[in-house]
Design goal:
heterodimer; A: 14 helices; rod-shaped; disordered N terminus; B: alpha/beta; five-stranded parallel beta sheet; globular
């Protein structure tokens, strides 16, 4: 172990050289003074004792060399100042005593120095250990602070997400851990401590208890995960919606240790779902009302569309009767005419079914649908209306389009709105009136359907307003058609937009996503 | 049963295939030779106007309407006895057609006996 130099014990470092040697002189002088004073009062001759003390003090405080000097000085003082009359033997004896004492002191001093060095080393070791310990404590404190912070974040996250976490041991029935948020969600007072399982179960709505117990029991028996929705009844009668999930923790041999899981307060989420459901219903109502309005406008055309096959069927039936009631009935002709009746009656029924399906009110029902077929059906329905306004209808339908997942009635409503708008835009113009409906593939797995006309075009400076609710350019319009169409298209994951045509007219485009995993 | 001459052709103008086809069949069962056209323009362009003894036409059609066809024929001094058949007939339209010289104005669907009587009446003019 290495020490910094200043830690190594040395008297020289404490006292300067003149002071150290000065101590030799001063201490011997004091010894002489003390002995002289003793002699003056006729006390026993004690210079040697005082001198030895002086030598010892000098050795101890000033070091080896000043100590040896003190011994020499003591010898000289004894032999020449204090007792000059003494014999040579006595002088030699005292010299020997001082010499031996000086040697002893040298040894003592060395021992002391070694001891002090050891103490210094030990001190340094302890200082270092202490430093390490302090660092470790600091580190521990930091980790603890981080842990506390992380716990605080977790608690905050649990509070924000209304998610509590728990650990429960089915073998003992004890709830082993119950997070702060669990107390809040279940409506327990944290001061009451972690609730017992029975207390938790008592808070479950009576109508849900049997189901919850069954789900938990089954999961525990099979060592499986569980998840269930339930209602919590607070002591004040308030009812909350919650959801709990849990998964088993098994020991290496497959024995059940405990379940850990969560409790989530889903009251607000459920509420929002209900709101969304109400909104969806309201939208469906509005869409239906809008469809019915349009169908109302189409009554004359639709009646004509139904009347044609009925007329054909009546003609056929009349023809059949005529062949049968001739003088020589012609059964072959009669049969052919009767077959025509069947064909035309079916055609009338088809049209009526189409009208009924467009008029029906119901849940959104998405199925794989052929967009081209939807377009063709809608054109069949609106053909009379176009004809009434001398509008020719042209289609460009890409035969290789994949089917789309869509609500057929809603998509037809969009088509009907766009086609009716186009007819409206063209019915008062003198030039050629053409309605073009195209279907094609667009980018990114989308199908694009366009409805173009040669009419008056979009209202100038208000192109972006046409999709606003209650915006209309028609004398009797309510201005919801395009709004509803856009919401229908967007609910299918597509977009609806409009653009002016050159030299005249407007085009409306909408996209529908083609599912990648279903065939054409 | 036939009270008509063989060269007296009945022309049918209707844009609806099935109505046109079944009407032609009905006339055939009643012993009337007929020709069918899908539009007023097609009839005018066929060159059969002069030999047509009776015209049965729809009113509402893409392009020229039945009433316009009647007016056109009148203007060309080609007065063919005309029977209108329509699904949208209102009184005003009926009055206009009859004033312009129509033999009959029948709402679709029509009674075959009434139609055939009207044709006979037209042919016997």
């Amino acid at each position: 172990m290495r020490f910094p130099d200043e830690m190594r014990w040395a008297p020289g470092s404490v006292w300067s050289i003149p002071l150290r040697y000065g101590l030799a002189f001063v201490s011997v002088a004091v010894a002489l003074g003390a002995a002289t004073a003793f002699a003056h009062f006729h006390l026993p001759q004690t210079f040697a004792a005082f001198a030895l003390s002086a030598i010892a003090i000098t050795f101890w405080y000033a070091g080896t060399k000043p100590g040896i000097l003190a011994a020499l000085l003591s010898s000289i003082v004894r032999n020449y100042l204090f007792d000059p009359t003494t014999s040579t033997e006595s002088r030699l004896l005292f010299d020997l005593v001082f010499l031996v004492f000086a040697l002893l002191m040298t040894l003592v001093l060395r021992g002391r120095n070694q001891l002090e060095l050891k103490v210094a080393e030990r001190t340094a070791e302890l200082t270092e250990l202490n430093g390490n310990l302090k660092r470790e404590i600091a580190k521990h404190n930091q980790v603890e602070a981080e842990l506390r912070l992380s716990e605080a974040y977790l608690a905050e996250a649990q509070r924000l997400s209304h998610t509590g976490s728990w650990a429960w041991s089915p073998p003992s029935g004890d709830i082993r851990y119950w997070s702060e948020e669990c107390f809040r969600v279940q409506g327990f007072d944290p001061k009451g401590g972690v609730p017992r399982y029975e207390e938790f179960f008592q808070r479950v709505h009576p109508d849900d208890q049997a189901r919850v117990a069954d789900v938990i029991e089954t999961a525990v028996r099979k060592r499986e995960e569980f998840m269930f929705d339930y209602r919590i009844v607070y002591p004040n009668g308030e009812i909350r919606d919650a959801q709990s999930t849990g998964h088993p923790v098994l020991d290496p041999s497959g024995g059940l240790v405990e379940y850990v899981g969560t409790i989530i307060d889903v009251t607000e989420r459920k509420q929002a779902e209900k709101e969304r459901e109400r909104l969806r219903e309201a939208q469906a109502e509005l869409a239906h009302a809008s469809r019915m309005t349009t169908m109302g406008e189409l009554t004359a055309s639709l009646a004509h569309e139904v009347n044609q096959p009925i007329t054909a069927a009546v003609n056929g039936a009349s023809t059949c009767v005529r062949w049968l009631t001739r003088e020589d009935p012609d059964l072959g002709e009669a049969r052919e005419a009767a077959q025509g009746v069947i064909r035309n009656a079916k055609r009338a029924a088809d049209i009526i079914n189409r009208i009924r399906s467009i008029s029906k009110k119901g849940e959104s029902n998405r199925q794989l649908a052929d967009v081209n077929e939807l377009i063709r059906e809608m054109i069949a329905l609106l053909r009379s209306e176009a004809k009434r306004h001398s509008i020719s209808v042209r289609t460009e339908l890409d035969a290789g389009l994949p089917k789309v997942m869509a609500d057929s009635v809603q998509v037809q409503q969009v088509l009907m709105n766009l086609i009716m708008n186009s007819i409206d835009a063209m019915k008062d113009i003198d030039q050629e009136r053409e309605l073009a409906i195209c279907s094609q593939r667009a980018d990114k797995g989308l199908l694009m359907i366009s409805v173009s006309d040669s009419g008056v075009g979009l209202p100038p400076q208000q192109t972006d307003k046409i999709f606003d609710p209650f915006f209309t350019t028609k004398p009797h319009g309510i201005g919801m058609g395009l709004r509803i169409s856009r919401s229908i298209v967007e609910s299918h994951g597509g977009r609806l937009w409009a653009a002016d045509n050159t030299p005249r007219g407007a085009s409306f485009y909408f996209t529908l996503p083609a599912p990648a995993d279903v065939g054409a | 049963m036939s009270g008509h001459k063989d060269n007296q052709l009945v022309a049918i103008v209707d844009d609806d295939d099935s109505v046109r086809g079944t009407l032609q069949e009905l006339l055939r069962s009643a012993g009337f030779p007929s020709r069918a056209f899908e539009s007023a323009e097609a009839f005018l362009g066929s060159g059969h106007q002069q030999e047509t003894a009776c015209l049965i036409t729809d009113i509402r059609m893409p392009g020229m309407s039945g009433l316009e066809l009647q007016a056109r024929l009148n203007a060309e001094r080609c007065r063919i006895p005309t029977i209108f058949i329509t699904a949208h007939g209102d009184e005003e339209m009926r009055f206009q057609a009859l004033r312009a010289g129509a033999v009959e104005f029948l709402p679709k669907p029509f009674d075959d006996e009434v139609l055939i009587e009207s044709i006979r009446a037209a042919l016997n003019r």
